[in-house]
Amino acid sequence: MRLSSVRVATANVVASATLTLETRGQGFTDITREARAFLSDAEGRDGVLVAFIRHTSASLTIQENADPDVRIDLLTALERLAPANAGWVHTTEGPDDMPAHIKTMLSDVSVAIPVGDGKLSLGTWQGLYLIEHRTAPHRREVIFQFVGSR
Q1: DSSP characters for 34-81?
Q2: Which residues form a coiled coil (predicted)?
């Protein structure tokens, strides 16, 4: 086990922006490029990027970005955990409404990514994804916020 040398930076910037996008319905949308563009525009050097989705039927995750079969299998797993036909009481917006809330609860509405030397510290096969849990397309908003140094 080895800990790298410690780098210290004084936080002198808080930058925020909202990404608005249209989903195509249930599935993963890679927003890594948009997160990197935001970081570049914010001139972030060392700190943390927080992404937060303002919805209860869509979520965010960091997942493998190499093999699309992973995302297909993840959707299958979520569907098995919260199927539309399970007799849910809350069906205000249709049979996929309550399962979408459960899937959001099982994943997350925010992620934090360390930033070093102006780059997201994602692993080789990692990407930042919005997961749409509803069947129909939706307009979604993700807030990006960088806290750190320039």
Answers
A1: HHHHHHHHHT--EEEEEEEE--SSEEEEEEE-S-HHHHHHHHHHHHHH
A2: none
55 to each of 9, 58, 131, 138, how far by Cα in Å? 33, 6, 11, 10
- Rounded Cα distance between 109 and 89, Å, is 23
Decide if 89 is inside a domain: yes
Tokens at residue 132, please? Answer: 């749409």
Q: State the residue range of the domain holding 84.
A: 13-149
CATH of the domain at 86: 2.60.120.460
List per-block mean pLDDT (blocks of 10 residues) for the chain, which spans 150 residues: 90 96 98 98 97 98 96 97 93 94 96 98 98 98 97
